[in-house]
């Protein structure tokens, strides 16, 4: 397709090469730098000018970091928070979007409107009242303190509803004639058709929970219950730098792996599923 | 009738969750703004006292100035850079997957990881950036350690970490521009700059405006990066509104004043959020 330039000749190749170098330098090299940095002993990391490749390789830093910061425990905590946040959100928003889209109850539009209205509110504007509500309900140091507020995701209700709206009514009617009740129709007909949007919403729910910092910081005052992000910032000031770097690499790996595995879904979801990132 | 009952059955979980964790906190936030809260006795009504305390706090002005400065810097960088990147990427027919992968990779990193990494890069001694500057025989910078460069250093981090989403959204928008428009511009003898100005930007103005508003709303709530990288310093140069809010709530346990600050932030951001919703819903219809 025609674009801004014709994209032929020497200029094209110069721009392409320049962009390749720039992108690699800006986005890949810093990550490689950290990956390598974790292999260097602290003395080597403090030296100027820095060594490019580690002079002494200390792969033990990754193991030491894992043991020193007890990363295993925080990995499990983060996994519980992220998977739970996804499961609870699905249990809450899928039936709701289905009801609003296909069952069309009285005042359904009012409810959708009230949900969408919460989107106008910056998430941090309710920081204090939600925190106090969690305290009242005794949900501090409890992963449910993350799961439940995260489940009130109006944007995802809206995205699902919009997708369900496009499912032809005849399809549901046919299922009903075959004797399927409302619940079976949802599980057998609607959900399988909606796999693309469910994948997008699910991935973003897990990623958001894994990346979150401020809520786990507030919800888990107990160090043993904390997520990776909260634990890492707690350890950062007095952890040997090579161990901290190793810890940062380890904490990022699951998200990078998720990205590589679901790249197509994630990048497609970015544009299809609104822009809240 | 039965249909409504079934429907509300399906809606019930969502209604409970939204009521407790979304709708009620909004109301409660407004109420709290006019109350003095401690956990021993029931809250007292204090009228506008919380707001007066805020206005009397010299940090209140500092925090807003910092936040607006930050938002402005973030707009110049975080808004211009992804757009230009997308325009360039859209011209390239090779290594498409590689570019997309790279630009989005930082978006997947937890913000805490990014903040701690960049704090290490910014180290004025053996840090990556000063090492590169020294290698090139250029003067080094104090980055986060100086009040004059601390904010721009934070903006660089945020731009690096978040530009992937904006770039890819722009890229998708650019691909919907009909090729004939560029052909017509070619016939008129328009150069690249003219074509960007008269074809590319007008054709993507809806997406541009949407991301602009979204970005203002997001950057004004900046918290994680200053909290981890500077703690608001040096010389309070990176105290943002949200950092101040956090201090009021969780250092001084003054939830009333913190709520009053939320309310002010909400009023400011509400304008942008409202515009955003209006624009997106118009495009939806």
Share of residues in strands of chain A: under 5%
Number of helices of chain B: 13
Put simply, the count of helices of chain A is: 15
End-to-end distance of chain B, in Å?
30 Å
What is the string of helix and strand elements of chain A?
Answer: HHHHHHHHHHHHHHH
Quaternary structure classification = heterodimer
CATH topology of the largest domain in chain A: MetI-like fold
Cα gyration radius of chain A (Å): 24 Å
Major β-sheet of chain A, in short? none
How big is the Rg of chain B?
Answer: 23 Å
Note the overall shape of chain B.
globular
The total beta strand count of chain B reads: 2
The strands making up the biggest β-sheet of chain B line up spatially as 1-2
Task: Provide structural commentary.
Chain A has helices spanning 9-37, 42-45, 60-68, 71-103, 108-117, 127-136, 144-151, 154-165, 169-177, 182-193, 195-211, 214-219, 228-235, 241-261, 263-272. Chain A has two domains: 20-58, no CATH class; 71-272, MetI-like (MetI-like fold). Chain A is built from 15 helices and no strands. The longest helix of chain A has 33 residues, at 71-103. In chain A, helix 3 crosses helix 14 (241-261), helix 4 (71-103) packs parallel to helix 7 and helix 13 (228-235) packs antiparallel against helix 14. With 277 residues, chain A is mainly alpha-helical. Helix content of chain A is 71%, strand content 0%. The model of chain B has no long low-confidence stretch (mean pLDDT 87). In chain B, helix 10 packs antiparallel against helix 13 (255-284). Chain B has one domain: Orthogonal Bundle (MetI-like fold), CATH 1.10.3720.10. Chain B has 285 residues and is mainly alpha-helical. Chain B is globular and about 75 Å long. In chain B, a hairpin with a 7-residue loop joins strand 1 (35-36) and strand 2. The longest helix of chain B has 34 residues, at 58-91. Classes of the chains: A mainly alpha (277), B mainly alpha (285). Chain B: It is a multi-pass membrane protein. Chain B: Keywords: Cell membrane, Membrane, Transmembrane, Transmembrane helix, Transport. Chain B: The chain crosses the membrane at residues 7-26, 68-89, 101-121, 206-224, 255-277. Chain B: Belongs to the binding-protein-dependent transport system permease family.
